[in-house]
Design goal:
single chain, globular, 330 residues, two-stranded antiparallel ribbon
Length: 330
């Protein structure tokens, strides 16, 4: 147990951060493995341990108050930073209420977009961000075990460069890229339109954490769409979007034959499933062979999104020849 009677900068800096990271990672690894083998009951028990973990609480507070890029952004309470004493007090608050967290309101900041419209950034308070970070520590390893291999956005150990490499490998001359086309898919107001039930139905979490996530979703709703939207600006929002969109990468798939064997005699064919879709959060590229029907694939994607409260943007979605080039992630 780590308790400090003197809550100073020295006692905060002196906390065993390396040990905390090891402890949290060990718990997260066990959650990942439990979901991987299909034991969700064990995974939920381990998630409760993460929520109760002193290591996870301190790391969450440090992440949102010292490390994140938006650490100086105030929420609805106007608080831009925490003193060392306030950080220790927040850890006590998280300890008492992590299983029954009540969210405060969100501060709305309009962000101008390239097309002249505005996107509303909704900022939680530092305390709410710390709880969301703690929730993310528990949720992320469970869902990492279920996420598609071609999803690259807001995932640990993955980046836009990984997506770039996969696209290059599928469109270079060895892969007959000259003959291929791509669907540049754009989801209309993705974060604002995600259906809450689509997230809650897929969520792997104990009851207390599920209630907390549901409250988090309800805090940021648009009165016109009370059952939709996840607040952009929340720590856990990108993960919730990934949970709702998981599976869209498998809509376009086909069997491909490839040769295996060391000699001419045993050089036989074997079939494997190819899923040539690349997703980074709500941006997606689908690689098409000459024989693939783009209209049919887009209809299936539209149906997938409709069930989750979202639509394909007719204005921004287009089919392009690979030789003409296309924009993906800028």
């Amino acid at each position: 147990m780590i308790r400090h009677s003197v809550k100073t900068s020295e006692s905060w800096k002196g906390l065993p951060w390396k040990k905390f990271r090891k402890t949290l990672f060990r718990l997260q690894k066990r959650v990942f493995k439990a979901v991987q083998v299909g034991d969700k009951r064990k995974a939920r028990s381990l998630q409760k341990l993460i929520l109760k973990s002193t290591s996870a609480r301190f790391l969450a507070i440090r992440q949102v108050s010292q490390l994140n890029a938006g650490k100086k952004t105030a929420g609805i309470d106007g608080k831009k930073s925490l003193s060392f004493e306030e950080r220790f007090n927040l850890e006590e608050l998280l300890k008492m209420n992590s299983g029954n967290w009540k969210h405060q309101g969100l501060r709305e900041i309009p962000i101008p977009k390239k097309d002249g419209t505005t996107r509303m950034l909704k900022i939680p308070t530092i305390a709410d961000r710390a709880w969301q970070c703690l929730a993310k520590y528990a949720l992320e390893p469970a869902h990492e075990a279920t996420f598609h291999a071609r999803s690259y956005g807001f995932r640990t150990g993955r980046s836009a460069h990984d997506a770039q490499k996969y696209i290059f490998n599928n469109l270079n001359s060895y892969a007959k890229g000259r003959e291929k086309r791509v669907i540049e898919l754009d989801i209309e107001k993705c974060f604002d339109r995600i259906n809450h039930s689509a997230i809650m139905d897929e969520l792997i979490a104990p009851k207390g954490l599920k209630i907390g996530i549901f409250r988090c979703l309800k805090t940021g709703v648009n009165p016109e769409f009370p059952e939709q939207g996840t607040p952009q600006g929340g720590v856990v929002s990108p993960l919730l979007a990934n949970i709702a969109l998981n599976g869209i990468e498998s809509i376009h798939r086909y069997h491909a034959d490839y040769k295996y064997g060391r000699s001419v005699k045993d050089n036989t064919s074997k079939s494997k499933i190819i899923e040539p879709s690349i997703r980074y959060a709500d941006d997606m590229v689908i690689i098409l062979r000459p024989e693939d029907n783009a209209t049919e694939i887009l209809e299936r994607i539209s149906e997938f999104l409709r069930k989750r409260g979202m639509n394909v943007s007719q204005k921004k979605t287009k089919v392009t020849a690979a030789t003409d080039g296309f924009d993906f992630l800028g």
